[in-house]
Amino acid sequence: MRDLLATACLLLPLLAGGSVAADDKILRIGTEGAYPPFNFLDEKGQLSGFDVDIAKALCKEMAVECEFVAVPWVTIIDDLESGKFDLMVASMAYTEERAQRIAFSDPYYRSHAVFVGDAKTFLDIRPEALAGARIAAGAGTMQADYLQKIYAAKNTIVITKDQPEAQAELQEGKVDLILADAIELMSFLDSSQEARFDFIGDPVTNDLLQSTSHITARKSDAALLENINAALKRIRLNGVYDKVNDTYFPFSIF
């Protein structure tokens, strides 16, 4: 599902719309900025993407002012715990290990992990069928953990600083396959000049790879997550979620 971003921490204050809460609270929202189309820095250097727009919609629904903070994926949980921001909207999947440290909202979208590579070379994604292949995933992701636990005995596992770097390694021929989120990889395949790249095999289903993404907060902020869950339900019902969804995807990812 990432190491230091070139621009470490970037504050981008954004007014999400609507009235500010009575206590003038500013809700600080952390995301990565290197996981398109969910969160990325646009041509103006501003945080954009599905995660960012969903966060803005939730802020507007809750009538609070929002501030966005771009942080490296490998420190994003530490930064949440230390108080650098209040909420993480960064396509974070649930794991028991993570749940020991932070609290998770209801799911706000669903997707699966899948391999991408040369579809003429690779047909079978079993570890023994891929023996000897070089497989990459971004640091700190569930996909990286999965590869190291399931594929490392028969394959060379390459952990890159983030998912975009894993994609670049594939394009440059430094690795043979990458494992990542299917929706993220759709954008990569659409933009890639290499027609030979395609999804390999079926989406990976395994207890080590969760298919739901969640907004997260510190365990002490349970009330905040309750408000987030309520706001998620409202934007699902009033059509705002669908408008954001349709901006980035031709199908529902909820």
From TrEMBL:
<comment type="similarity">
    <text>Belongs to the bacterial solute-binding protein 3 family.</text>
</comment>
<feature type="signal peptide">
    <location>
        <begin position="1"/>
        <end position="21"/>
    </location>
</feature>
<feature type="domain" description="Solute-binding protein family 3/N-terminal">
    <location>
        <begin position="26"/>
        <end position="252"/>
    </location>
</feature>
<keyword id="KW-0732">Signal</keyword>
<dbReference type="Pfam" id="PF00497">
    <property type="entry name" value="SBP_bac_3"/>
</dbReference>
<dbReference type="InterPro" id="IPR001638">
    <property type="entry name" value="Solute-binding_3/MltF_N"/>
</dbReference>
<dbReference type="GO" id="GO:0042597">
    <property type="term" value="C:periplasmic space"/>
</dbReference>
<dbReference type="InterPro" id="IPR018313">
    <property type="entry name" value="SBP_3_CS"/>
</dbReference>
<protein>
    <submittedName>
        <fullName>Transporter substrate-binding domain-containing protein</fullName>
    </submittedName>
</protein>
